[in-house]
Amino acid sequence: MKRRLQWFCSCALLCALLLALCACAAPEPEEAQASFFAMNTYMTMTAYGADAQAAVDRAQARIEALESFWSVTQEGSDIYAVNHAQGQPVAVHEETAALLSFALDMAEETGGALEPTLYPVLTAWGFTADAHRVPEEAELAALLENVDYARVRVQGETVQLDPGMMLDLGAVGKGYAGDLAAQALREGGVESALLNLGGNVQAIGARPDGSPWRLELRNPFGEGGLGLLLAQDCAVITSGNYENYFVAEDGTVCGHILDPETGRPADSGLASVTIVAQEGRLGDALSTSLFVMGAQRAEAFWRERGDFEMILVTQAGEILVTEGIADAFTPYEDQAAVRVLTCEVRADAGHFSQENLE
Length: 358
Ligand code: ADP
Ligand code: MG
Known about the structure:
Layout: H1 2-25, E1 31-38, E2 41-48, H2 52-70, H3 78-83, E3 90-91, H4 94-109, H5 119-124, H6 137-144, E4 153-155, E5 158-160, H7 173-187, E6 192-197, E7 200-204, E8 213-218, E9 225-231, E10 235-240, E11 245-247, E12 253-255, E13 258-259, E14 264-265, E15 270-277, H8 280-293, H9 295-305, E16 308-314, E17 319-322, H10 323-326, E18 329-331, E19 338-341, H11 346-349, H12 354-357
Parallel strand pairs: 17-19
Antiparallel strand pairs: 1-2, 2-6, 3-5, 4-5, 6-7, 7-10, 8-9, 9-18, 10-15, 11-12, 13-14, 15-16, 16-17
The structure holds adenosine-5'-diphosphate and magnesium ion.
Magnesium ion binds near residues 239 and 287.
């Protein structure tokens, strides 16, 4: 009996020693978090490493400052000042000028599917004040007279609009804010973090154990997820009309992404667009504009550009995944068919893919 007890004790000691050794080999990384409301949405950040909390606090402050520059409704913001300047030039912050110039370039590249001057039309649909209504055709036609990204003038850090025009950087702001918040985290020494800016996800590095982040994509047709995407060091940004919409009297679903050609909610046959890109601002600009363009034009655009990957979900329930991320995406079992989009020139064109990032 005594020997048995001795044996038991030495085993227990050995186990404790092994546990202690394991703990030394893989110490729990320090975790820092923030969750807050900004840019009309809930945001969360989780970062790992020593001093991560200070970096997270700085990243949050950065996002809050950017919101105060870009808000369409806050009276002191750059965008508010430009929108109420009645045609006069307005000096804006460097970040505002950079974001606006980027949005104008993307408007050009997407043939106007991204349209940063749509604000008066959005207001007419009641999206800006939660007072939804369906405007008359004549009202839309009159408002569209003042919608034209090509008439926005940016010179250095000065912005000038024609009287009657208004800017709204809602389609790209969160993506760029994510880029600048990620930059603040990296500057604070963070090498592993996940930022979720209201569905715009930005990953710094991989998880602390070195494995990729496991991101659940939202099912645009109802509750729950569509599937899992493994990702690291990239932005994963989704747009759809399932979150901010209203149902008109005739039963039509009116979403907050508008087709600048018609001034009406985009009706391109897509239910959601997820973009995987190196930069959040590109992902954000494209998730909105490819939603307007529809699957065929989006596919052609992807082939042409080569610096992003995407997952399109059609209204019919088909999932189209570009080949660079096809292996990283696993749809949940009961989902409809998945089709992989391929591109012959992919290797030469240096297409974006997860491997490029490692
Ligand atoms: P969210 O901001 O909900 O994540 P998006 O990035 O797709 O979604 O941006 C949608 C917002 O962009 C709308 O709420 C509106 O403010 C603005 N918007 C709507 N349609 C367009 C468009 N065609 N081009 C540019 N901005 C748009
Ligand atoms: Mg967007």
